Amino acid sequence: MASDASEVVRVEEVVKDFRPGFGLRVKRVLHGISFQVRRGEIFGFVGPNGAGKTTTLKILMGLIQSTGGSASILGSDVRETDFRKHVGFLPENPYFYDFLTGREILRFYAKLSGVPAESREERVDTLLDWVGLSHAADARLRTYSKGMLQRTGIAQALVHDPDVIFLDEPMSGLDPIGRMEIRNLILRLRGEGKTVFMNTHILSDVEMLCDRVAVIVHGRIRYEGRIEEFVNDEGRMSELVVSGVAPEVAQRIEEQMGGELRGHGERIAIRLREKHVGEALQLVLGAGADVVSVTPERVTLEEIFLNAVEEGEKDSPGSGARPVRSLHDAAGAAAGISRTAEGGR
Ligand SMILES: Nc1ncnc2c1ncn2[C@@H]1O[C@H](COP(=O)(O)OP(=O)(O)OP(=O)(O)O)[C@@H](O)[C@H]1O
Ligand SMILES: [Mg+2]
After folding, report:
1. pLDDT class for 175, splitting at 50, 70, 90?
2. Residue 141's pLDDT is what?
3. Looking at ligand 1, which residue's alpha carbon is closest to its atom 6?
4. Which residue ranges have their beta carbon within 6 Å of ligand 1?
5. Is 216 found in the same domain as 160?
6. Is residue 179 domain-shared with residue 136, that is, in the same domain?
């Protein structure tokens, strides 16, 4: 398989069927999904409940086998085991023995992961400090808050200092402060050069954290791309509201900058591409008119996501609909901006 050094995870045409029981119909949960995760990035695997996120992660973790396609981590097929020492994993619902203390559970995992006895205590102390649990190290897990348990789970995933960390819904069930703490930990991981893969459906966290995302709906990848692809999209629109603009100035904005004008009389609203806003403002102000407001049309990940889910509902199940491949197209679709067809192919 051609693999490039910057590529940490490669998923190609992965299919997963579940057999609910003898004689029952096979249920296809992943319909040939493909995506890549690159070194050093925080990758968000985003989708609604039941989309197939955990199933995909279990395949990557070697906990279940795919029905078809291939998946590799750090260039090794996920059915191999050697590369696992470079991989950390926080499951969806980590279960801890709650009569143990934070220190004891980490000691246990350090032992399991083969951290040598002589460096184990030091490693556990470092981890406790790293996730901000030193003060509670000797309290039993049953006294921990959800956020503290989740941080224990992250510490557990890091016990053997892996290069790649997989997190299944690391923020679920946490309050805003708990989420912020986990976000900060994830950002620090990236700061240390780690690659982070996370399953989530909390879009604000994705927007704040992720470098790239793939959106999965009903077992199909709908979008894959960089967050900036739509956040800094040159083609994005802004609305300019101005007053006292002479008709010839308005006409120039319309003709030379492709502005769409609404309203008449004193105040007009002009919708135009963001890249023309500066020029238009100069023209308006230079002509002695007033600028009332400038409002960029922000397409949020939420709109893109809802759009993807809606499209997914229409296509599913089993239609031959072609998935939209880039967030650029998604942003356009969500904003109702028409784009050239070639982008969606
Ligand atoms: N062992 C199994 N047997 C049969 N069906 C399964 C099995 N595991 C998962 N599924 C089904 O596969 C689909 C995808 O489930 P999965 O847990 O991967 O979704 P998810 O995206 O992680 O959802 P959530 O956001 O709720 O965690 C669901 O329809 C689920 O019911
Ligand atoms: Mg899940």
Report:
1. confident
2. 94
3. 18
4. 18, 20, 27, 29, 47, 49-55, 201
5. yes
6. yes
pLDDT (tens digit, 9 = 90+) per residue, 271-291?
998 889 999 999 999 999 999
Q: Can you give the CATH number for the domain in which 45 is found?
A: 3.40.50.300
For the chain, how long is the longest CA-to-CA vector? 81
Among the bound ligands, the one closest to the CA of 18:
1
Domain range for residue 273?
Answer: 237-296
CA of 57 to the centre of ligand 2 (A): 9
255 and 287 in a common domain: yes
Q: 18-71 pLDDT, tens per residue?
A: 987 777 788 999 999 999 999 999 999 998 889 999 999 999 999 999 999 999
Return the ligand number nearest the Cα of 19: 1
Residues 213 and 247 reside in one and the same domain? no
CATH number for the domain that contains residue 292: 3.30.70.260
End-of-domain residue from the set 276, 296, 316: 296
CA distances from 125 to 20, 103, 121, 164, 198 (A): 45, 8, 6, 21, 25
The CA 48 to ligand 2 mean position distance, Å, reads 9
Number of domains in the chain: 2
Q: Kindly report the protein residue whose alpha carbon is nearest to atom 2 of ligand 1.
A: 18
Residue 328 in any domain: the answer is no
| Span 215-260, pLDDT tens digits | 999 999 988 988 777 555 556 788 999 999 888 898 999 999 999 9
